[in-house]
Amino acid sequence: MLNYIFKRIIHAAEVLFVVSLITFAVLLWIPGDVAQLILGSDATPEKLEALRISLGLDRAWYLQYWDWLKGLFRLDLGQSYLFGQNVTTLIAQRLPVTLSIAVFSMLIASVTAILLGSLAAIKKNTKTDYFVTGLMQLGSSVPSFWIGMLCIVFFGLKLKIFPITGYVPIEKGFIPYLNSIFLPSFVLAIGEIGMLLRTVRTSMLDSLRQDYMDMAKVKGLPKVTVYLKYALRSAMIAPINVMGIQFAKLVGGTVVIESVFSLPGLGRLILVAVEQRDIMLLQGLVIFITFLVILISLIVDIAVMFLNPRIRVQMEGE
Amino acid sequence: MNKKIIAVFFLILALTFTGCGKSEEKQAEDILKIAYTTDPQGLDPHRTAAVSTFNVTGSIYETLLAITPDWEVQPRLAESYEISPDGMEITFKLREGVLFHNGREMKAEDVKNSFERLKGEESPKAKDYANIKEINVLSDYEISFATEKLDVELAKAFIYPWTAIIPIEDAETLKSNPVGTGAYKFKEWIPQQQIILTANEDYYLEPAKIKELEFKLIPDATSQMAALQTGDIHLAEIQGNQVEVLKNDENLKIYSEPMNAVQLLALNLDNEIFKDVRVRRAIAMAINKEDINSTVVYGYGSSVGAHLPVNYPDYYDTNDVIGYNPEEAKKLLAEAGYENGLKLEMTLPKNYQIHMDAGQVIADQLSKIGITAEIKVVEWGQWLSDVYSSKDYEMTVAGLSGRLDSYYFLKRYHSKSGDFISYITGEMDPLLEASTSELDPQKRKEIFKEIQVTLAENVPVVYLQTPDRIFALAKNIEGFRTYPIDIYEYKDVFFK
Asked: Do A90 and B191 touch (CB under 8 A)?
């Protein structure tokens, strides 16, 4: 088991290195001059050159990269030229926002998907099944910014029950905090439910077909126990994998939803970093998000291991 | 267990719903909430050229002189000023008892330090002040600036927001913690979220009427509109296409003024095709500015025939010099040897919807006289480096914002300017040079009229319009105006 985790960590380091190298290269090669963006259209060539030198952009790319890499080992991601703050500070400021909507929307999506997905599987090929799957198909095929707009207009403007812009930190009260993240999380959840629901339904159908289900029924166990304790538990492996992927995607920031709801999350920070060519900031963000994604997939693997005794045994036997 | 999950889910929902709706209660009319879309590039006025910075810092810092919305120069930190008869020196008498937000009194030495900082290495505006060769502190409240060459509009150089007077002891931290003398003090800046300023109780003029300014970052235009309608914000700059919806809201009103800017179709005069004035005139004749006005800015703009915006004191109407005439345009193009048409590339900056839209309308209009404009969309950063700095383009649509003196705006046309729209044949040079040595404002106005007529006839670029700046604001807000430079005087704004 420890051996397995160790291997995963080594592998993660490799991935991080390659990703950072690619980001660095791409940023250097895309057109647009950082100095020009900072100084604007009035700048003289001498001023531009002086700024490039002070930003260290005149040095060879591998030297710039090496400096950055050295910083990474000290957990120092450098300074953002745009905000004049440490990249780590900027990420720490944004993370609660993105994490909040990611967690909350996954909560909404998984609860809904598990409930409706199981229901659809149990009532397979009935009107309930068709209705549920049809509805979710619709939900996942409509673009999220449009649903976002509709929600703003309906819940914010017409009913006035939700604030439509901004984020309230949890320190300022739990209810205002929940209010500020509910709509964006809800909209994001709509986009994720479809795929998750299909997975739940399929694997639930699969486990309902297993022999032990008949056994349980024959034993005269109550329906709830049969479905929850036996069917759902073994049906959860695939959905948990999907949830992991979805969560990792959401943690990476959701540019569109963050823009529509004016939330200061990681997604918008990435957008600004790209537009303004803030190399340090972007590089730091990419590394951090890659790290998060790797971490989440590790957690998912461990979770699956606990759910599925067969995998557990296999790994311990390695 | 199933039921429990459902119960928790609905409990959360219920909690969420009951907690809403009342959050606006505490906000008396002490806070003005303003929407903005781009974070400032720091809050140090000497270290950036970004308009997003000056929009905010204009309330924190002050300059020696100020300008009214009607282009009148007024004293601010300086009580009065005097220009020597030869025009080479300007002397300011400073106000006494003006305090910085850190509590110290502002004196002549601070003015000197501020200008030396503005002229320094790291300052993007340094070259504009290179002409000031000497700064002499005459007493605590008197200071003079001597220039190397004659600048007939010298006083105006002391109005721009980047000439802010700062306390030098705080210079290092101004970027994130600005300290000035203005009617508002800095309280908080959370990047990508909000900026809060509070009224300065010790302000030497009439203090600000509204106690707190809250700038809220709302990047999406539709979200801004919704926030205006729910009262989440009181004031936002909007686009022409949003006016229709917002003007029907009984809690809102619309305010618009011409910008100090011109939108134009630039033609690269290094390109052989554009060296022929007939081609340029043909393009100008093919463009129906009325169409651009009605479709791109929804009527919120005024057509221009030359480079000065319509609200400039030196503005002269040249709209009729070359009118819309596609038939004549085709003939001119044929005369120039392009009877079979032309293929040209038009580079458009993606971040500016107004230029993107105008570019598409123009491309369509040009196609009617046989010119195929191939649109190439680039990001702002790339536009700046390729088009603006390297002059690597054929046609582009751009907006150029003006200053307070016409020469500064027009000097791009000097054949030696190296600007992306410089007029390489040198026809403008003598006129431009004459304007810099003419001390009589009336005669100078005549020179600028001649320049405008020459530009309108020779169309080194095709002038489109002065777009309006449009704002939607809560109906009970009074005193909000726009200024010829990128600042807003929020101290004059109040709730009725």
From this structure: yes
Q: Is A128 on the interface with B (CB under 8 A)?
A: no
Are B64 and B163 spatial neighbours (Cβ–Cβ below 8 Å)? yes
Query: Which pLDDT band, with edges at 50, 70 and 90, does A146 fall under?
Result: confident
Determine contact: A89 vs chain B, CB below 8 A: no
Same domain, yes or no, for B102 and B114?
yes
Distances (CA, A) of B487 to B63, B200, B481: 12, 18, 10
**Taking CA B336 as the corner, what is the angle to CA B335 and CA B342, rounded to the nearest 5 degrees?**
115
Contacts of B128 in chain A (CB under 8 A): 42
Q: Are residues B247 and B289 in the same domain?
A: no
If we measure between CA atoms, which residue out of A286, A247, A296, A244 comes closest to residue A8?
A296
Residue in B with minimal Cα distance to A51: B122
Looking at the structure of chain B, the number of domains it has is: 3
CATH of residue B139: 3.90.76.10
Q: Residues 234 to 253 of A: which have CB under 8 A from any B CB?
A: none
Q: Looking at the structure, tell me whether residues B166 and B182 fall in a common domain.
A: no
| A96-124 per-position pLDDT tens digit | 999 999 999 999 999 999 999 888 888 88
Closest residue on chain A to B121 (Cα)? A47
Q: How far apart are CA B280 and CA B269, in angstroms?
A: 10
ipTM of the complex: 0.74
Look up the domain containing B73 and give its range: 51-172
Examine the domain organization and report whether B108 and B232 are in the same domain: no
CATH 1.10.3720.10 matches A93-308: yes
**pTM, to two decimals:** 0.82
For β-strands B31-36 and B212-217, DSSP reports them as parallel
> Are B434 and B335 within one domain?
yes
Decide if B398 contacts B266 (C-beta within 8 A). yes
- Give A224 to chain B, closest Cα distance, Å: 9
pLDDT surpassing 50 at residue B288: yes
Whether B121 sits inside 8 A of A50 (CB atoms) is yes
